[in-house]
């Protein structure tokens, strides 16, 4: 973050500074954190009340680690200055908004906001790889995309930052509008309207409306970069200029001739100027081509050389840990660990990738866990995934956990299988079964929401047992 005095921060947060007479002159020279374990000398600690514990309990710990001050909603016993505010989380957003405005006063910083039901993190990582080749770039780690994570990411920018990539996650109506008001993106990227969080948002139409808040937030000077293959995104109103990517014939940034093998995914990239070239990703999955197209569109519109875009994308070894992460054991068994997150759309895409890889003659095994946050749609969507596994001719299905049992039941009821689906209550039982049935050449996909913890099962499968 840029260096700011506690007096300036207090004014930006509309708070009250409590501390010694000269507290307002003290400088925050480090990072902004909501986790006291990450505090280092010069940091500012936001004592945010959480779901499990209250950050106010850790103000003394933050002080010991070198925090300059704490932002609180009630004063606590500590000797460092405290900035009293009505809402610590809202104050975090206020500070991010203020810092961005200060940076923009003296720099040509470009802010890219990304939202979509799937693909945000991969697209963000692709953009980080490309844009960092031409200038200082800030992009969030993991999935820092909510009312806490997004401001924390924004606050890592300084006067030298040329590109800031912000993930805008949906937490309900108004959530993306709130984050967009903080970031005020120059570019808004709309990737996909799908079934992720559909149980919380009242159906896919509700999801589309929330995602569309980013399009509405863009001004006439902004740029809307949308998925031309998604009808919901095509219908989103915006005041900004529009640029499209996808496989649709009218997409300015278009992919054709998609090809997939165990080494990665390739496609013919068509640029708006009529030129085309082959791009080969080391990342598995045809669905990642759409993410690559979005990244190409953003970077090209920012003036990045197309040769730089291509080389950066082709050099990426994976999207992110536990996202279509491919590792091949010394005995030739390939493990695709995609268990960081799961929705019906992303699970279907991962299964399609597995089925395509199986056409090489290798046996395919899908280990699936629960897809969370589907609400009233959970039964229907888990059942549907089980049936899709059968229709894709996946050789073996292993379902883990009671929340995913309907995947197993759906596969069994599809009628074209006889015992190829196994269900286990526990991860340990599933791991033991899979270890015992693997043979050289197998390709194993592990897919679930993070809460199902199958990503650790995927890691365990990499260890070859005698």
TrEMBL record:
Residues 114-299 form the Mur ligase central domain. Pfam families: Mur_ligase, Mur_ligase_C, Mur_ligase_M. Transmembrane segments: none annotated. The keyword Metal-binding does not apply. One of its GO terms (biological process) is peptidoglycan biosynthetic process. Residues 32-97 form the Mur ligase N-terminal catalytic domain. One of its GO terms (molecular function) is UDP-N-acetylmuramoyl-tripeptide-D-alanyl-D-alanine ligase activity. InterPro entries: Mur-like_cat_sf, Mur_ligase_C, Mur_ligase_C_dom_sf, Mur_ligase_cen, Mur_ligase_N, MurCDEF_CellWall_CoF430Synth, MurE/MurF_N, UDP-N-AcMur_synth. Residues 323-449 form the Mur ligase C-terminal domain. Keywords: ATP-binding, Cell cycle, Cell division, Cell shape, Cell wall biogenesis/degradation, Cytoplasm, Ligase, Nucleotide-binding, Peptidoglycan synthesis. The keyword Cell wall biogenesis/degradation applies. This is UDP-MurNAc-pentapeptide synthetase. It comes from freshwater metagenome.
């Amino acid at each position: 973050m840029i260096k700011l005095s506690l007096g300036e921060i207090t004014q930006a947060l509309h708070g009250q500074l409590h501390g010694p007479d000269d507290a307002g002159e003290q400088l925050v020279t480090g990072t902004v954190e909501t986790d006291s374990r990450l505090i280092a000398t010069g940091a500012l600690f936001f004592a945010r009340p959480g779901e499990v514990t209250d950050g106010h309990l850790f103000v003394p710990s933050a002080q010991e680690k070198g925090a300059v001050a704490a932002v609180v909603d009630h004063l606590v016993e500590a000797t460092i200055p405290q900035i009293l505010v009505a809402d610590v989380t809202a104050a975090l957003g206020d500070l991010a908004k203020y810092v961005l405005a200060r940076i923009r006063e003296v720099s040509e910083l470009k802010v890219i906001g990304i939202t979509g039901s799937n693909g945000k993190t991969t697209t963000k990582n692709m953009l980080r790889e490309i844009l960092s080749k031409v200038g200082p770039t800030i992009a969030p780690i993991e999935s820092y995309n909510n009312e806490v994570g997004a401001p924390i990411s924004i606050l890592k920018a300084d006067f030298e930052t040329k590109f800031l990539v912000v993930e805008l996650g949906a937490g309900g109506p108004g959530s993306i509008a709130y984050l967009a008001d903080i970031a005020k993106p120059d570019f808004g990227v709309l990737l996909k309207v799908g079934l992720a969080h559909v149980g919380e948002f009242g159906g896919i139409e509700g999801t589309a409306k929330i995602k569309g808040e980013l399009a509405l937030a863009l001004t006439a000077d902004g740029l809307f970069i949308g998925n031309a293959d998604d009808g919901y995104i095509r219908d989103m109103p915006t005041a900004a200029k529009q640029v499209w990517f996808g496989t649709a014939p009218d997409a300015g940034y278009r992919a054709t001739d998609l090809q997939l093998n165990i080494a990665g995914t390739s496609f013919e990239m068509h640029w708006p100027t009529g030129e085309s070239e082959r791009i080969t990703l080391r990342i598995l999955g045809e669905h990642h081509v759409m993410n690559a197209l979005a990244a190409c569109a953003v970077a090209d519109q920012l003036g990045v050389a197309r040769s730089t875009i291509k080389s950066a994308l082709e050099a990426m070894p994976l999207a992110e840990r536990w996202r279509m992460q491919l590792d091949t054991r010394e005995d030739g068994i390939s493990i695709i660990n995609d268990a960081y997150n799961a929705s019906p759309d992303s699970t279907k895409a991962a299964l399609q990738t597995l089925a395509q890889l199986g056409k090489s003659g290798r046996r395919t095994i899908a280990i699936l866990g629960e897809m969370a946050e589907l609400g009233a749609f959970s039964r229907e969507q888990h059942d549907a995934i089980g049936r899709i596994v059968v229709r894709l001719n996946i050789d073996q299905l292993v379902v883990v956990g009671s929340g995913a049992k309907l995947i197993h039941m759906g596969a069994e009821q599809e009628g074209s299988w006889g015992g190829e689906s196994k269900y286990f209550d526990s991860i340990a039982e599933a791991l033991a079964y899979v270890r015992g049935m693997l043979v050289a050449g197998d390709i194993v996909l592990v897919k679930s929401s993070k809460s199902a913890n199958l990503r650790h099962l995927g890691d365990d499968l990499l260890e070859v047992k005698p």
